[in-house]
Design goal:
Elements (H helix, E strand, L loop, with lengths): L2 H7 L40 H13 L4 E5 L2 H9 L7 E5 L4 H10 L6 E5 L4 H7 L4 E7 L11 H10 L3 E5 L4 H4 L9 E5 L13 E5 L2 H14 L5 H11 L2 H20 L4 E5 L9 H7 L6 E6 L4 H10 L4 E2 L9 E3 L11 H7 L6 E4 L5 H12 L2
Parallel strand pairs: 2-3, 2-4, 4-5, 5-6, 10-11
Antiparallel strand pairs: 1-7, 6-7, 8-9, 9-12, 11-12
Helix pairs in contact: 1-2, 2-9, 12-14
Length: 380
């Protein structure tokens, strides 16, 4: 099945009891057994739930994987992946990544003996040079958050395999509609399903997808033993949201392209970060490994004053000032004080994440109305 069919049909079947086309919400904590250990495949809802099973099957199909595991949030999904490592292991990560991912590595996992190093992964020679005997996982995202950098997944995965190092790709910004890291050599794919997969800003969830049976067995154990699972209502909402993934993301991409062009020539804008521009350093890679350039844009202002960025964000009407991304509604945010507040200032400035940087998540509204909103917000 192609992606537009997978989102609707993969892992989803009419309920055998009633014929319900939509997967039922199995709102139960436990299941009756015919005898001790003899049941219909479900014993306790932390371990498994039929609504969650349908969602996990669907997600595995979307990323061309064999196994998928859902968690209570994207951060819980990341935590499960890192728990595959032993104390003394090192995570090699891109220096341009979501602030929450940086915070989890530095403030949580380093307390338990798993360390992190952050480098410029657009430099493939540096990636190879940086791998040492303790490096057990490469963690990356592309496009990156919020600078919209593009990393060469196929090349990085090839380097990792030479050194027997796992690669996990946070595919949240792209979604499975635009990019499938497993096809490019990644061992694991992580999603904050909260974003494009859910698409309606009404559920928080994370997921990990992979092919390796041994790693899948370990993740299944971690999922059950730690218990950071989503409830069946959330799984139902996620299944419902996924059905329109291809339609929503395509519209977001189309809108983003027009808005990026508008911002690029605006007199108050200093620089626009958008991988669909031919002068973007990652344009050719993005063109090769993605189906389109995504619905995310970042830009900063002339003069780089935080108060100017705040003024812009307080004047928008259709762009809602809020955390998150990937919903049907357009959002506007200030990474320096919101999503990336945990990143040391010198580190974010070295990436180009300035005080006036504004991040846009482009929704599916009429693009003419979105541009009118930005014209008003950027006016004196």
């Amino acid at each position: 099945m192609r992606i537009g069919t997978k989102v609707i049909h993969a892992g989803v079947h009419p309920d055998p009891t009633t014929g319900s086309v939509m997967t039922p919400i199995y709102q139960t904590s436990t299941y009756a057994q015919d005898a001790p250990g003899v049941h219909k495949g479900y014993a306790y809802a932390r371990s498994s739930n039929p609504t969650r099973t349908a969602l996990e099957t669907n997600l595995a199909a979307l990323e061309n994987g064999k196994h998928a595991f859902c968690f209570a949030s994207g951060m819980a999904a990341m935590d499960a992946v890192v728990r595959l490592l032993n104390p003394g292991a090192e995570i090699l990560s891109t220096n341009d990544l979501y602030g929450g991912s940086y915070r989890q590595i530095k403030k949580v996992h380093e307390r338990f003996g798993v360390t992190g190093r952050f480098i410029d992964m657009t430099d493939l020679a540096l990636v190879e040079q940086s791998i040492n005997q303790n490096t057990r996982l490469i963690w990356l995202e592309t496009p990156t958050n919020p600078m919209l950098g593009i990393l060469d997944l196929e090349a990085i995965c090839a380097i990792a395999k030479k050194h027997d190092v796992l690669v996990c790709v946070d595919n949240t910004f792209a979604s499975p509609y635009l990019q499938n890291p497993i096809d490019l050599g990644a061992d694991l794919v992580m999603h904050s399903c909260t974003k494009y997969l859910g698409g309606h800003s009404d559920v928080v969830m994370g997921a990990v997808i992979l092919n390796d049976n041994g790693l899948a067995e370990q993740l299944a154990f971690i999922q059950n033993a730690v218990g950071a699972i989503p409830g069946p209502q959330d799984c139902f909402l996620m299944l419902r949201g996924i059905k329109t993934l291809h339609l929503r993301v395509q519209r977001s991409c189309e809108n983003a392209r027009i808005i990026a062009e508008f911002l690029k020539v605006h007199e108050k804008v200093n620089h626009v970060y958008y991988p669909g521009f031919e002068d973007h350093p990652g344009y050719e890679i993005a063109k090769r490994q993605m189906h389109d350039f995504g619905g995310m844009i970042s830009f900063d202002l002339n003069g780089d004053k935080q108060e100017d960025a705040v003024a812009v964000m307080q004047k928008t009407t259709l762009f809602t000032l809020a955390e998150s991304l990937g919903g049907v509604e357009s959002l506007i945010g200030h990474p320096a004080t919101m999503t990336h507040a945990s990143l040391p200032k010198k580190d974010r400035l070295s990436l180009g994440l300035t005080d006036s940087l504004i991040r846009l998540s482009i929704g599916v509204e009429d693009v003419r109305d979105l541009i009118d909103d930005l014209v008003k917000a950027l006016s004196d």
